[in-house]
Amino acid sequence: MHSSSTVRVHGLDTLRALAVSFVVLHHYVLFVSDAPTFGWVGEVGWVGVDLFFALSGYLIGNQIFAAMKSPGGFSLKRFYARRLLRTLPNYWVVLALYFLWPAFRGDSPLLPLWKYATFIQNFALEPGSAFSHSWSLAIEEQFYMLLPAVALVGAACRGSLRLAWTGIVLALIAGMLIRADLWQEMDAHTHKLYFYFKYIYYSSLCRYDELLAGVALALLRNHHPGAWARLTRHGNVMGLVGVALCGVAFWFFLDDRYGFAITVFGFPSMALGFSLLIVAGVAEGSLLRNLRVPGAGSLALWSYAIYLLHKPVCVMAAKWMKDLGYGAEHPLTIAGLLLLSVLTGWLLYKLVETPFMRLRERCVPGNAKKPASQQIAV
Questions:
Q1: H helix runs in the chain, sequence order
Q2: pLDDT tier for residue 153 given thresholds of 50, 70 and 90
Q3: How is residue 259 annotated by DSSP?
């Protein structure tokens, strides 16, 4: 996410708005209607999380690599401070609601507070737990903590770009091998779906494909400007290929989501497709970059807050609507709950996120060791 002071790219805003929309519709189907309310979009909408991962990998990787190349140098302390001010305030407010307001969590059991506080709740997460959708936030937070440290160690050891690319490729292969091994174990398990979500879908070691793909894009942009220029010169083509790759991956996930081949190769396939969409989103002159979808910019700004709140808000509101005689499939219920998801996300964004983002820009304006105003012009 960018602060309000950052120049926004419409293409990335559109992708972020699409990601949060997919997730909200999917969770409506999964936790509220238990019906094909939104067709295939509702069924495969969980891929919005993977799109968020790809966007995070690119944006955070770009911040780190750009700061490392800057005259001021990269500050790990400032990076962590900016990340924590960005992610923790909203998260802690919502977490407090789960622990202090029983209706917010319903009948779902909560994990110990220390697991949420340390962002390890996704490790062997029991399906059906309260605040279960925070598994993706845990993986992103782990990524935020690990990536800059790895980048600095590589720079200190005078690591070559070839070593960095080799590491990315080996990590992607390792992820596929881990999923393949776990799938074999799942195939012999009595409760296959339970095993799949607990040990594969929620697992950090199985779900970093899109994050790595985004980092690879950032590495390409910052250290291979010629290749990046050639790639972005064909933004519309990259976008079409990305849509095609995502479409094929979606089709296979819809056809056999828990099969061996799609479990092993589906996530890296989506990672490549989403990466090409990101290229199209930032490429000068591309349709996606210049497309201004009404409301997409606002949804993108509020997406983190919407993601945190929409699930419990929809579940609670659905019960109220049912008591009034409106079922989950009623158009009034659908419209009301989706609007409520956006409204509560906006409130969280305005009341909590915005003040802390202003504090961040005032106290920690960048990731460089020295602010631009203090750097000596060369």
A1: 10-28, 39-44, 47-69, 76-100, 102-105, 113-117, 135-156, 161-187, 192-195, 209-223, 225-232, 235-256, 260-282, 287-290, 296-323, 331-348, 354-363
A2: confident
A3: S
